[in-house]
């Protein structure tokens, strides 16, 4: 097996108990989205997972893990700093040579399924629970003549580093070190790459006996959140009133670049339309919530705009792009280089006319006509949050693919897959204050689950999971 390469955990690691999924964290919000690394959280209901090493039908060693029940469907799943809690057990009916009991908690990125491929270690925390050379062993009556007997247990609690650093020369203090949020567990069937987390109990048995080892795979969810909404949007969500458009709420919207599209009306009349897509500010959204959209279209042809003033004229989708590779400088053997990428759409926006906008609001005494549409992208609860790890990135873009309606045909551009794309970030927590409100209708396909290979439950971490 190839040797792993290590990233360095950030020095100041948070400690504390996991927060109940529905409880609010109280703190001063950062200027931009960030991991919630500085907060002491309170315990939620836990679920116990047990892993055993049996010999002749009897359990010799076992590992018990306690994890938040709400997010641990089939495997223990932790979020934020954790901690990873549990106990290690030895059940020795006869004296046996035991040299050490060591627990490791680690995270790693693997570019493929083959054991020959090198791996990037995100963090590796090792704790010796018992050693034959310790003061505890010297005074333990069950440890005699270098052999241990009876039943023994060692509780443990290990915090998870919420950030890791990637550096060029392997030194965490080197100039240019970049801080990254620890990524969520990733193991979709569409890609061979994976982000994996494990607890490993290792029991040393001396030179002439094979050691006992009990591995446990666990899921991990980072705690990341967006900034608060701008003032007018906050008021709209508090009072559950329609959002104000970008003309009034200037701070509440971010404009993508304007684009000009060409088409034909009834297969005979050429038409030019200027489109300006707006995204709700800030451009950081909680999975399971919505991305409010606003489209302004202007043209000298009123009839073309009338045809486009429907809920089916625009195709705007959320695009996810994953890229991965181990940098060549990290490889012991360059033959182990492995890279890949995947790009796919994970949701399409719904649209409806903006009743507050007149057709000629921006066209007084001109030959330019205007229509405005409200839109929403409904974000899936199981979206993987944005990830900036150099070896493994998950990026999202809101993309406008087409503008079409019965009677109006857009001239297709064969080179570009989409007319425009604007980057956004997906996070796991809600911001303090009111939540975004869904105004538009649901799509039939938006709740279709992604195909995953691990048993983690997903959803925004500051409220109960959807049923």
Automatic annotation (TrEMBL):
Region described as Disordered: spans on this chain: 1-25
Q: Do you know which InterPro entries this protein is assigned to? A: Arrestin-like_C
Write down the superkingdom of origin.
Eukaryota
Q: What is this protein called?
A: Arrestin-like N-terminal domain-containing protein
């Amino acid at each position: 097996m190839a040797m792993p390469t290590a990233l360095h955990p950030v020095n100041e690691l948070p400690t504390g108990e996991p927060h109940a999924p529905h409880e609010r964290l109280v703190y001063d919000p950062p200027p931009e989205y960030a991991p919630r690394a500085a907060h002491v959280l309170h315990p939620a209901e836990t679920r116990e997972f047990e892993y055993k090493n049996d010999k002749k039908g009897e359990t010799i060693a076992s590992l018990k893990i306690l994890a938040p029940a709400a997010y641990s469907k089939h495997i223990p799943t932790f979020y934020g700093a954790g901690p990873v809690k549990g106990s290690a057990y030895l059940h020795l009916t006869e004296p046996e040579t035991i040299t050490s009991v060591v627990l490791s908690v680690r995270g790693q990125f693997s570019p493929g399924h083959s054991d020959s491929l090198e791996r990037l270690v995100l963090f590796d925390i090792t704790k010796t629970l018992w050693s034959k050379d310790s003061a505890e062993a010297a005074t333990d009556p069950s440890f005699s003549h270098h052999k241990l007997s009876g039943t023994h247990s060692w509780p443990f609690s290990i915090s998870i580093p919420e950030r890791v650093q990637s550096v060029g020369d392997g030194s965490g203090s080197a100039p240019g070190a970049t801080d990254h949020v620890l990524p969520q567990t990733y193991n979709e069937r569409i890609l061979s790459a994976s982000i994996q987390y494990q607890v490993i109990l290792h029991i040393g048995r001396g030179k002439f006996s094979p050691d006992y080892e009990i591995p446990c795979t666990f899921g991990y969810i980072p705690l990341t959140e967006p900034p608060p909404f701008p003032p007018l949007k906050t008021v709209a969500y508090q009072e559950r009133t329609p959002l104000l458009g970008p003309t009034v709420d200037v701070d509440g919207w971010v404009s993508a670049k304007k684009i000009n599209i060409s088409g034909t009306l009834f297969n005979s009349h050429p038409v030019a339309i200027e489109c300006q897509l707006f995204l709700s500010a800030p451009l950081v959204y909680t999975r399971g919530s919505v991305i409010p959209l606003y489209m302004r279209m202007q043209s000298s042809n009123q009839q073309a705009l009338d045809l486009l003033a429907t809920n089916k004229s625009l195709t705007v989708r959320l695009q996810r792009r994953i890229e991965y590779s181990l940098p060549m400088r990290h490889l012991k053997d360059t033959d182990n280089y492995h890279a890949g990428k995947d790009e796919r759409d994970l949701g399409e926006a719904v649209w409806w006319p903006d009743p507050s906008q007149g057709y000629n609001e921006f066209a007084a005494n001109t030959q330019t006509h205007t229509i405005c549409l409200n839109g929403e992208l409904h974000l899936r609860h199981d979206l993987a949050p944005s990830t900036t790890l150099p070896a493994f990135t998950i990026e999202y873009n809101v993309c406008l693919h087409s503008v079409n309606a019965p009677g109006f045909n857009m001239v297709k551009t064969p080179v570009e897959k989409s007319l425009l794309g604007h980057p956004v970030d997906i996070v796991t927590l809600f911001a303090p204050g009111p939540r975004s409100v869904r105004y538009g209708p649901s799509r039939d396909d938006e709740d279709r689950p992604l195909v995953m290979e691990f048993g983690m439950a997903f959803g925004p971490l500051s409220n109960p999971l959807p049923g």
